[in-house]
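Worked example 2:
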Amino acid sequence: EITFIDFPQVTDSRGNSNAYFILERDIQRVCQYFESQGVMTNPRAILRDLWKRYVERDPNERAADLSRMEYEREAALEREQA
C-alpha cells in the first residue's frame, strides 16, 4: 500500500489555478516509476479520487492545514540557519 503525502506546492485549489495540473503531473510521475517496477497504476483514477477528497473538505480545515504547514516550514528554515 502506498501513502501519497504530496499536494501541489501546499496551495489552496481556489487560489492557484495550476494546482490541479501540478497534482496531475506529480501523480503521473509517481505512477510511471511504479509502472517501471511492474506495478499496475491508474493515474487518472488516483487524481480524480484525491482531488475530489481535497475539494470536498471544509475550507476552514484546509486553511488550518496550510497554516500548520507554513509554521512547520518556517521552523525548519530557522533550524537550518541556526
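The chain has a mean pLDDT of 78. The CA atoms of residues 68 and 75 lie 11 Å apart.
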